[in-house]
Amino acid sequence: MQRLTLRLLLLLCFTQLINYTSAKNAISNTVAHVLDNELISIRKDEYIEPTIEELSQPVIFTPSGITCFINHRYNVEKYAQEVLPELPFNHLEQFLVHGLRTNQPRSYTKAVFRLFEKKFKAVPYINAAEFESFVQRLPELIKLYLAPNQAARKRTVKMIMRSEMETNFDAFKQNPDAFLDNLAEKIVTSEQADIHEVTLEHLQYNMAKFIDTCLNKIIWSPSDKDDVWANFIKIGKGLNTLKEQGVVRSTDDLDDCLWTLTTRFCLFLSLSGADLPVEFYEKACKEIHRGIACLDNIEEQEDLMLTKRACVHDAILKNVAKSYENARPATTPDH
After folding, report:
1. Residue 211: its pLDDT value, please?
2. Phi-psi region at 315: left, alpha or beta (left = phi > 0; alpha = psi -120 to 50)
3. Could you count the other beta carbons within 10 Å of the beta carbon of residue 291?
4. What was the pLDDT predicted at 118?
5. What is the pLDDT of residue 310?
6. Which pTM does this prediction carry?
7. Is residue 201 a contact partner of residue 249, using CB atoms and an 8 Å limit?
8. Of 82, 206, 286, 304, which residue is most buried, by most CB within 10 angstroms?
9. Mean pLDDT for each consecutive 10-residue tract of the chain (335 residues)?
10. Radius of gyration over alpha carbons of the chain, in Å?
11. Which residues of 173-182 are buried (b: 16+ CB within 10 A; e: fewer)?
């Protein structure tokens, strides 16, 4: 009997593993049955580079439209080098909206984030204001995928097992192997519709990876003198909101993203701090001394580590002298 109980437990584990299977071509398969009457207007001559306007065109969600996007935009070096830095999330959001409109499973959304994360690795920079705006919109774009569905599946498996045990218990006693084979077949069949589905945890993991990749690319413009500090704080608050709304799953993932934001901002200060006005540093110092909730709300991994706020403070102190030097009026020699 213990052996049979063990086999039942293994069977339940197997049904859970089904949910971790990923699907190939999860994006292109969504338009496999769509009427395709699109004429691809983008240049396909490999010796003629497409224009920025062509690379920025909206995605057409038909078979030839997806083919056109992948072959003649996504795969073009210019797309990552010149289009995504200024309009990084246009096409990503179009894919997410398509998923919502056509009721795609989580496996589709996961595939979209993985597709663009690969391309964003080649992007030289991402406009920080564009990223901050995207963080604000993201929860609405994926809200349908944030509700856990494991409970419903467990209820289905439990219902099947209970029904079989109640109606065919004699068969179980007479031929346990045949009974378990039949039970396994019914459970697997019941899951076929979702065989390529992924768990909420898997989707959250991939979204956190995508967000962290983007954070490693963001850059601020010194010309936006009044907005640099405000944008930095807004991004920090936005990341905390993503954790509250379930886009980012764990505190560790949030902490990793906040550290990436912090180190990226400190790098920006080391490169462009001299071009920022003294008023920027004065405002930043005041807020740092009052505390920065979006950075301070997670304790550091080790007690001896510098906090994120301390790292920003050190970067401010190292670069404020350069700003004062630039602000000092030029002197003219006496004659």
Report:
1. 98
2. alpha
3. 10
4. 96
5. 95
6. 0.76
7. yes
8. 206
9. 54 46 77 75 66 93 93 94 94 96 91 97 95 96 81 64 78 81 75 63 95 97 82 97 95 97 96 89 92 92 92 92 66 49
10. 27
11. eeeeeebbee
Q: Could you write out the DSSP letters of every residue in 19-78?
A: TTPPPTTTTGGGGTTS---PPP-S---TTSPPPHHHHTSPPP-SHHHHHHHIIIIIT-HH
CB 28, CB 108: distance < 8 Å: no
Q: Which long-range contacts (CB under 8 A, 24 or more apart) does 154-159 make?
A: 156/190, 157/12, 157/15, 157/187, 157/190
Break the chain into its structural domains and give their ranges.
2-23+150-194, 106-145+199-323
Among 314, 306, 315, smallest CA distance to 276 is for: 315
pLDDT score recorded for residue 182: 83
Residue 258's contacts (CB-CB under 8 Å, 6 or more residues apart) are 236, 239, 294, 295, 298, 308
Catalogue the long-range contacts made by 272-277 (C-beta closer than 8 Å, 24 or more residues apart): 272/220, 272/222, 273/315, 273/318, 273/319, 273/320, 273/322, 273/323, 274/319, 274/322, 274/323, 274/325, 274/326, 275/222, 275/326, 276/222, 276/225, 276/228, 276/319, 276/323, 277/225, 277/323, 277/327
Q: What is the DSSP letter of 195?
A: T
The confidence score (pLDDT) of residue 332 equals 46
**In the prediction, which pLDDT does 334 show?**
53
Amino acid at position 227, single letter: D
Q: What is the pLDDT at residue 18? A: 43
Q: List C-alpha distances in Å: 194 to 18, 180, 310.
A: 9, 22, 47
Please work out, in degrees rounded to the nearest 5, the angle formed at the alpha carbon of residue 55 by the alpha carbons of 49 and 59.
140
Neighbours of 245 (CB within 10 A): 14
8 Å CB contact between 203 and 110: yes
Tokens encoding 187: 């459970």
Residue type, 256: D
